[in-house]
């Protein structure tokens, strides 16, 4: 079974769940892990980077919940702002509602991975057996090294780093994933060479297929994995087996 482990849905013209489900079927993907989208309009990323636009800091978790209820293909990850004093309580509520993990967004919410609030969320995720997924914030406190230190501090919690860490090749992310049992790398937007070299270094058990929909198309991202020189078992791990294990899916 192929699972897109990283997609964003939102009540927008470009990220609506109904459209995403059509794309999944066209791509031959049976299940998907969805997170709240549209906090940053991915069509206008340069305007956020330059400071012309500010993110919508309120995650659309309710929309994700409604989407999961509407289709058995979808699995929800909740997003909370670690700076929110009620972040832990909110995450507990979302997990009780059936969400399968935590997404944090250092590009939207101005926290750092070493923060006490982030530590509290990581502790809860470890206790509940659910993973944390995040991208880098490309600023002090929210880079690969900071995420790796968080994973080292909380070995009972599983951490997924989006986009293979980013940049054309994030060697630091690959080295850390090879070293740490609880750190995994997600493939979306990663270069083919970086994905290929990372699998050699970490093994297929540490790499997870994702699309970063709607910024990229699942079928396009899927081709990178199909082109990798892997055994059938290794490809199955990347395309679905690893995320099934992290989310305790049947």
From TrEMBL:
<dbReference type="Pfam" id="PF04909">
    <property type="entry name" value="Amidohydro_2"/>
</dbReference>
<dbReference type="InterPro" id="IPR006680">
    <property type="entry name" value="Amidohydro-rel"/>
</dbReference>
<protein>
    <submittedName>
        <fullName>Amidohydrolase family protein</fullName>
    </submittedName>
</protein>
<feature type="domain" description="Amidohydrolase-related">
    <location>
        <begin position="3"/>
        <end position="248"/>
    </location>
</feature>
<dbReference type="InterPro" id="IPR032466">
    <property type="entry name" value="Metal_Hydrolase"/>
</dbReference>
<dbReference type="InterPro" id="IPR032465">
    <property type="entry name" value="ACMSD"/>
</dbReference>
<keyword id="KW-0456">Lyase</keyword>
């Amino acid at each position: 079974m192929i699972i897109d482990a990283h997609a964003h849905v939102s009540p927008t013209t470009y990220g609506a769940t109904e459209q995403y489900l059509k794309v999944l079927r066209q791509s031959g993907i049976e299940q998907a892990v969805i997170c709240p989208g549209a906090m940053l309009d991915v069509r206008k990323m340069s305007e956020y980077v330059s400071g012309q636009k500010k993110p919508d800091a309120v995650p659309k978790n309710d929309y994700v919940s409604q989407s999961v209820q509407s289709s058995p293909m979808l699995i929800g990850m909740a997003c909370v702002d670690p700076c929110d004093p009620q972040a832990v309580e909110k995450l507990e509520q979302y997990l009780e509602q059936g969400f399968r993990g935590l997404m944090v967004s250092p590009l939207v919410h101005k926290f750092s991975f070493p923060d006490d609030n982030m530590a509290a969320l990581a502790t809860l995720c470890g206790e509940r057996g659910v993973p944390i997924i995040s991208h880098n914030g490309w600023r002090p406190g929210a880079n690969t090294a900071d995420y790796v230190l968080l994973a080292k501090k909380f070995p009972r919690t599983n951490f997924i780093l989006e986009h293979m860490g980013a940049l054309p090749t994030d060697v630091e992310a690959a080295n850390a994933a090879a070293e740490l049992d609880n750190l995994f790398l997600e493939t979306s937007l990663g270069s083919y060479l970086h994905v290929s070299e990372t699998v050699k270094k970490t093994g297929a058990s540490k790499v997870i297929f994702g699309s970063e929909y709607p910024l990229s198309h699942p079928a396009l991202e899927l081709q990178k994995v199909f082109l990798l020189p892997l055994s059938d078992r290794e490809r199955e791990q990347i395309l679905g087996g690893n995320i099934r294990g992290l989310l305790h899916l049947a």
